[in-house]
Specification:
The structure is a homodimer. With about 450 residues, chain A is α/β, with parallel strands linked by helices. Chain A folds into two domains: about 5-35 and about 75-110 and about 265-345, FAD/NAD(P)-binding domain (3-Layer(bba) Sandwich), CATH 3.50.50; about 115-260 and about 360-440, FAD/NAD(P)-binding domain, CATH 3.50.50. Helices cover about 35% and strands about 25% of the residues of chain A. The first copy, chain A, is built from 13 helices and 27 strands. In chain A, the strands form nine sheets. Chain A has a six-stranded mixed beta sheet, with helices on one face. In chain A, α1 (about 10-20) runs parallel beside α10 (about 325-345). The interface between A and B is large, with 73 and 73 residues.
Chain lengths: ~450, ~450
Amino acid sequence: MRPQVLIVGCGFGGLEAARALRSADVDITIVDKTNHHLFQPLLYQVATAGLSAPSIAAPVRHLFRRQRNVTTLLGEVVAVNAQAQTAVFKDGARLLWDHLIVAAGATHSYFGRDEWAAHAPGLKTLDDAFEIRRRVLMAFEAAEREDDPARRAALLQFVVIGGGPTGVELAGTFAEIARHTLPGEFRRIDPRQAKVLLVEGSPRVLQSMPEALSESARKQLTALGVEVRLGARVTGIDADGLDITTAAGAERLQSRCVVWAAGVAASPLGLALADATGCTLDRAGRVVVEPDLSLKGFPAIQVIGDLAAAQSHKPGHEPRPVPGVSPGAKQMGRCAAANIQRRLRGEATQAFRYTDYGNLATIGRNSAVVDLDTPAGPLRFSGYFAWLFWLFAHVWFLIGFRNRFVVLVDWAWAYWTHDRNARVVAGDGLSEASPASAAAASARRPAG
Amino acid sequence: MRPQVLIVGCGFGGLEAARALRSADVDITIVDKTNHHLFQPLLYQVATAGLSAPSIAAPVRHLFRRQRNVTTLLGEVVAVNAQAQTAVFKDGARLLWDHLIVAAGATHSYFGRDEWAAHAPGLKTLDDAFEIRRRVLMAFEAAEREDDPARRAALLQFVVIGGGPTGVELAGTFAEIARHTLPGEFRRIDPRQAKVLLVEGSPRVLQSMPEALSESARKQLTALGVEVRLGARVTGIDADGLDITTAAGAERLQSRCVVWAAGVAASPLGLALADATGCTLDRAGRVVVEPDLSLKGFPAIQVIGDLAAAQSHKPGHEPRPVPGVSPGAKQMGRCAAANIQRRLRGEATQAFRYTDYGNLATIGRNSAVVDLDTPAGPLRFSGYFAWLFWLFAHVWFLIGFRNRFVVLVDWAWAYWTHDRNARVVAGDGLSEASPASAAAASARRPAG
């Protein structure tokens, strides 16, 4: 029997690892708890009704149909036995592995305030995106039926918490919907009166960017109609709004639609790995890995992507932490695959080295910031050309010709008409999501 | 104040009625419990992962954005007061009307066996389509993980109950998925071994068609790999399969994926109308209307579409029942709108007269039957050209240029590659749907 490679998770890291092993003399099993690979950088477009779910999600087994050494299984791995070299599924089934790559990713963290989850959904899965889409569209619907001015104003106030790339994208697109997509479609309210607030704890948005680009992003957001609140700490979230504290003191924001784009925590599978191997977790729950991405004392287990607290080891430089972005995950996937092949040949594994091509974030129509590392030095620009660059970079990396084409058509249409093509909410859309029903729904909902 | 027209329901009938009143000196309010108009003839394509939900659903208020005399409200009307001329919403809100058009449509009926609903979902809403999509795709996923041959065979047996147009479309497409879309993507099972059964109580499929076309449809289904069981009565459905009785006796069919395409019942709003006006309901719960579509003694209330038990009144002919198809609903919508305008002018209303353009049904790839009424007499054909005719007729009637275009691209892609573009299931897709979680989910799920 050929060596058995088990890959847990089919995000950017897991997908790339499996692909990098396409010619290896191994049997690969890739396990994911959903049936699709999700192109996460465009998930905010599903949440804001610009794209349908199938445009950014492809069935995992379809992606590997021609790679005959890959078996795709739908299931959730909940534990690992490092001695017996098995993985345990939620339903109790077990799978043997000789080499294990754990790429289970991350989820959102409410910094210990899990009760906020019901009032401020995050954006990691298709279900999250549908929930945000529902809340945004339903807030306008409810406002059209509301006669009380104060309640109507609360319905038309949208708050995004967290000024990272996702928060900036969501806030900018909400403003675009209110100002450009919906006007003319309501008879009792004017959607342009909707307020979009972006609340960020630090003094600037897009902290991973150079300061000048952060300031440019703030200006572009303001021009799109977003009110940016910097240095604002969230102290409470409930069904009717949130409490923040700024230098000016405490403030209450009324809102029926709050979105959480602030904290990220590693997958709970990190805890299971710590139980199994005694590996260390960092504060965000990420697994601290060796330079070659393996676990200390367990060379057959590698952890990659958002679940790994990995360092980039460039000869002659201090080790530097790898940022939680998709190029990082992909590069780790390739490194893990190469290390498995080295071990099979009896060679020493190599340390992971991250190549940073730069950073880009979109803000809304015609607005983006780009920070590239080129051989000739850093290249930074913002505005319309940054937006075009962002657009083609993202469409280019989208999986599958057909998706790229459909996404381009959707975007061209949206650009010229200001319309958004996925403004559809199934069911009556009116019932408030209770945490229980949301969990029940998220356990089994197909998508678009 | 101008006369207030209230239209309940935005299916084909309600949409057409509101459009026909575009130049009338009235204020129209159109109320629907979802935010979209659904192009129901293509809903089976969403259920079988061929199209994404936004391709066949358009926001109601977007459709009416330029018709300034229309106000769109999201909400569910649960009662009508015929004397006070009000409609009562689920949340207790009330709305005054001078003219009421009730176009609330139909739902599926399990002939009093409501416990079957959990095991055999029907296909009327986007949520239904997502549930069927989930069950079909997850059955293949579970089969790939199943080692027991009997359980695997049960997972790979799909049963569609009801040989009307929807049942025929679903069965044909399931067979196509098993034979053409999925082979090559699994490593442990061969999807071509899946069995698709179509169970019909009467002696032929497509009963509304001429007998020769029914026979042609049966042959085309068989050629696609569907096993057609005619004259088979369903006596029980549970989580593991169903019991049927045929001339040969009782039989048990093991299946984990049963779809209900057999019975239709009118919206419960029919009961509310009967309470309010004393109108008669037929056996399917449809409201028996006067020749002009109004209710006896209540000329300001008209009922149209699938909720109406209406007759076509062609001068010199016996009244004939109107079939429950979209052209019937649309024509009733136009008739109801015209009758409101006649009453506003003090004229007598006119009886409804249905023009039958014929009947078409698709079966699967290259397979369809067409039965047209032309001035030169009936025109009947089947097979490839019928399929092309069906395709262009459906794309033509799809709402909005963009949808038509995207649907054509999706179909062209699917035709040449045998691939299906919406094979995405959100969440882990594994949890069995309990009726309670299905209801909770269906109350709030956005779509694709």
